[in-house]
Design brief:
mainly beta, four-stranded antiparallel beta sheet
Length: about 140
């Protein structure tokens, strides 16, 4: 029987120490280099679990794509340290004062190895920007 036959849950919820930078500038690199924003804290001593990633538009934007990269904890400027992990289309959005902006949520439900972190980028330059955050917790 395998040693890990019981479910495991995150012990410590984590949010980035600072609010993630607003994504407004295009990055067409598909290797995690270039203009990227760190959206999660570094996974702890036993790894972490990511439940979801949420992108919230901050106003009027053209359509784009959100790309999420899993980084091995080393510099993201080296392509070999990153892997394109997830991507989702971002709709065009229009600022209004009478309705809420609709967030885009990517269900993840996957473990993140010890020392790894997540980065995000968008495929086209947008006017107002997108605020992206990963909901994670350390084991």
């Amino acid at each position: 029987m395998p040693a890990n036959n019981l479910p495991i849950f995150p012990l410590t919820p984590k949010a980035p120490a600072t609010l993630p930078t607003l994504l407004t500038t295009a990055n067409t690199a598909k290797d995690g280099t270039g203009t990227v924003v760190q959206i999660s804290e570094v996974a702890g001593a036993f790894g972490a679990f990511c439940t979801e990633i949420t992108a919230l538009p901050i106003g009027t934007n053209t359509a784009s794509v959100l790309r999420i990269f899993l980084n091995n904890g080393s510099t993201n400027a080296t392509a070999a340290n990153n892997v394109l992990w997830k991507e989702v289309s971002l709709p065009s959005t229009t600022l209004t004062e009478v309705a809420a902006q609709t967030p885009v949520t990517i269900p993840i439900n996957q473990a993140i190895p010890v020392g790894y972190r997540l980065y995000a980028t968008i495929g086209t330059t947008v006017a107002a920007g997108w605020r992206v955050i990963a909901l994670t917790g350390d084991y």
